[in-house]
Structures are given as structure tokens and as C-alpha cells.
Design goal:
The complex is a heterodimer. Chain A has three domains: 89 residues; 34 residues, no CATH class; 31 residues, no CATH class. Chain A is 81% helix and 0% strand. Chain A contains six helices and no strands. The N and C termini of chain A lie far apart (94 Å). Chain B has one domain: Cytochrome c oxidase, subunit III, four-helix bundle (Four Helix Bundle (Hemerythrin (Met), subunit A), Up-down Bundle). Chain B has eight helices and no strands. The longest helix of chain B is centred in the last third of the chain and has 32 residues. Chain B is elongated. The termini of chain B are far apart. Classes of the chains: A mainly alpha, B mainly alpha.
């Protein structure tokens, strides 16, 4: 009996150690993602931005792996169960490649054959949300502001 | 003959009399439900990616999500609020693992304590999301309304806000149902239901769902706030 107890206590410590380890890994990965995100704010080079975005996607996949494998315990399940879950999800590789390529191709087609679409993406427009904060109420606010001014003038 | 030996070692799990996956029926079904849910979220995120790829310009998330509660209007704090939301969800996932582990050890007190922390984390995340939605709504963003211009200063379509509110809303709905499930699990634990059954398998199934919610947030957070 004491033997059994010491075994389960050992197991308990192993599990807690694994949870601690995965928590630290997830936190570090998230912090690296955020550092990359902050760094990217001031970068204008498209190539470098794309490289950072690629790195963020790889970190995202690593986080997903640690959550599924350790927190959801999938790594410790039987191989057959792992396969019935992971193999269907492999369809995502095709989904992502096919649909993003399709979106990209649609943009190229429109840029080539739809002059209106191409033109719209070159016309700069004034920023809406900084003026007054609430764009759909901005006109109301503006009107309210102008009546106040009128009142001030009247008072003077 | 060699065929037979390999077959017998292969067939060990498939001879009948026990679960070939060595897990309980409910847990297998929870896994398959989560797999189907992953396809739903995947379809949402891939359609977002496809539309974004088919458009010339897109709003800069660092200009859209730059506010913070109780901060003065016009504060420029990109990524700060969402990183707090992310850490809240990671921590609540950790307390959920601890609750599942306590359940395996038949430690009722540990289950109750960690479930309470997990529920608090879930409610904190939902509160953060409610604040962010409310703030964006006040800035004029909603389904069909997009006050934000593209990063290059050109006019943006409403695709940006439509996808943002639909996908974070669908995720928030999952967080909400996860909190409800966790509260039910906490009440059942307090009523000694699992002590009577002799196992805490329900906590493990609720835990799978809760980790899935955290997993989806990893993708949603990356796709909307970082990329």
C-alpha cells in the first residue's frame, strides 16, 4: 500500500512538473509573438513584414501543439485515437493553400480587368474615426457643437 | 505465421471487451465534437483570409485595437489590452489542467478551488471582450459599419468589421458556454456527484472543451491582432 502511495505521489509530481513546464513554454511563446508584433509596427519593408508574419504563424502552430498535446492530453492517448483526430485535420493544409491562392488570384484578376476596383485602391480618403470619435454620431455631435458656439456668440 | 503475430499485437485493442481507444465513450465523442468545431472555426478563419487576400488594402490592427480601459481618449497602446486577454485565457487553461489533475487524484477540494479560478478567468475574459466590443461600437464599428480606413489611407469595405465581430463573437459564445459548463461542473462537484460516481471524468470532458476555447483564441488572436 505504501508502495502504491509513493508511486502515485511520484506520478503527481511528474504531472505538476509537466504542467509548469508547458505553462512557461506557452507564456514565452506568447511574449515572443507580442515582441514581434510590437517590432512590426514601425517596419515598412514588405519583405521583412512577411518574414515576421511567417515567424508569428510558426509560433502560433507551436502554441497550438503544446495546448493540444499536453493540456488536452492527446500526446498521452493511444496512437489510434490520435490518428482519427489529427489525420482529418490535415485537410486544413489543402484548405488554406487552395483558398488563399484563390483569393490572391481573384485580386489579381480584378486589378487587371476591373478598372474601378483598381482605382478605388489608389484614392486616399480622409480618416473618419478620429474626428469626434463616433463616426455615425459625428454629424449629430458636430451640429450640437455648432449650436453651442452660436449660443456662446449670442452671450457675447 | 509472422503475419499472425503482428496481427495479434495489432488486435490487442480490437478484440472486444474494452475500449479500443482506451478512453471513455463520452471523451471520444467530445474529441469528435471538438474536431467538427475546429472545422467550423477553420472555415470562418479561412474565409477571412481569402477575402483579405482578394482585397488590395486592409485596416492596420495596431491602429484599430489601440485603446485600453480607463485610459484617456486617444491613447495609443496597440496590442496591450489583447495581450492581457490572451494571458487571462492561458492562466484559466492552466487552472483547468490543475482541476482535471486534482479530479484524477480524487481531490475534491483541489477540483473546487481550480474550477473557481477557471470560472473567474472565463468571466474576466468575457468582460474584457464586452468592453472591447462596446468601445469599438462607440467608435462606429459594427456589422455593416466600418469607420476604419485601410493602412494605406484608402477606403475600406465592411469586410474587416464583419469578420472581426462574427469570429470573435462566435469565439466569445464558446467562452460563454464554457463558463456555463464549468459552473455546472462546479455545482456537481460541490454536490458530491463525482464522489458518488467514483470518478471525475466529467471534469476531464469539460476541460477538453475549455482548452479548445483557449486553442481557438490562439488562432483568432494571431489572425486578427498580429497579422
Amino acid at each position: 500500500m505504501s508502495n502504491h502511495d509513493s508511486h502515485s505521489a511520484e506520478h503527481h509530481h511528474d504531472v505538476i512538473a509537466e504542467i509548469k513546464k508547458v505553462t512557461i513554454i506557452l507564456s514565452v511563446l506568447t511574449i515572443v509573438e507580442l515582441v514581434l508584433g510590437f517590432w512590426m509596427i514601425d517596419i515598412t519593408s514588405e519583405g521583412l513584414r512577411l518574414a515576421i508574419k511567417g515567424a508569428i504563424v510558426i509560433l502560433m502552430m507551436a502554441k497550438a501543439f503544446y495546448i493540444v498535446a499536453y493540456f488536452m492530453h492527446l500526446k498521452h492517448e493511444i496512437k489510434n485515437l490520435i490518428m482519427t483526430i489529427v489525420v482529418p485535420l490535415a485537410l486544413f493544409i489543402w484548405f488554406i493553400a487552395a483558398f488563399l491562392a484563390d483569393g490572391n488570384s481573384f485580386r489579381n484578376l480584378r486589378n487587371n480587368y476591373d478598372p474601378h476596383f483598381k482605382e478605388q485602391s489608389t484614392i486616399k480618403v480622409p480618416e473618419k474615426h478620429h474626428a469626434g470619435g463616433e463616426s455615425h454620431k459625428a454629424t449629430e455631435k458636430h451640429e450640437a457643437g455648432s449650436t453651442e458656439k452660436h449660443e456662446e456668440k449670442a452671450a457675447h | 505465421m509472422s503475419n499472425v503475430t503482428t496481427a495479434s499485437s495489432e488486435a490487442k485493442w480490437w478484440n472486444g471487451g474494452k475500449s479500443p481507444f482506451d478512453v471513455e465513450y463520452g471523451k471520444v465523442m467530445m474529441w469528435y465534437f471538438l474536431m467538427s468545431d475546429a472545422f467550423t472555426f477553420g472555415a470562418f478563419l479561412i474565409s477571412y483570409g481569402t477575402v483579405r487576400f482578394s482585397t488590395n488594402g486592409w485596416p492596420d490592427p495596431n491602429k484599430v485595437f489601440k485603446s485600453f480601459p480607463f485610459a484617456p481618449e486617444g491613447v495609443n497602446a496597440p496590442l496591450v489590452f489583447v495581450s492581457i486577454m490572451t494571458f487571462i485565457l492561458i492562466v484559466s487553461s492552466v487552472t483547468m489542467v490543475l482541476a482535471v489533475h486534482a479530479g484524477k487524484m480524487m481531490d475534491k477540494k483541489g477540483v473546487v478551488r481550480n474550477m473557481i479560478w477557471t470560472i473567474i478567468g472565463g468571466i474576466a475574459f468575457l468582460s474584457c471582450q464586452a468592453w472591447e466590443w462596446n468601445h469599438l461600437h462607440h467608435e462606429g464599428a459594427w456589422w455593416g459599419l466600418n469607420p476604419f480606413n485601410n493602412a494605406d489611407g484608402t477606403a475600406s469595405s465592411t469586410n474587416f468589421t464583419n469578420f472581426f465581430f462574427t469570429i470573435t463573437g462566435f469565439h466569445g459564445f464558446h467562452v460563454f458556454s464554457g463558463v456555463v459548463i464549468n459552473i455546472i461542473m462546479l455545482i456537481m462537484t460541490l454536490m458530491d456527484k463525482f464522489e458518488q460516481r467514483g470518478h471525475y471524468l466529467m471534469i476531464e470532458k469539460a476541460g477538453l472543451y475549455w482548452h479548445f476555447v483557449d486553442l481557438v483564441w490562439v488562432f483568432v488572436f494571431t489572425c486578427f491582432y498580429l497579422l
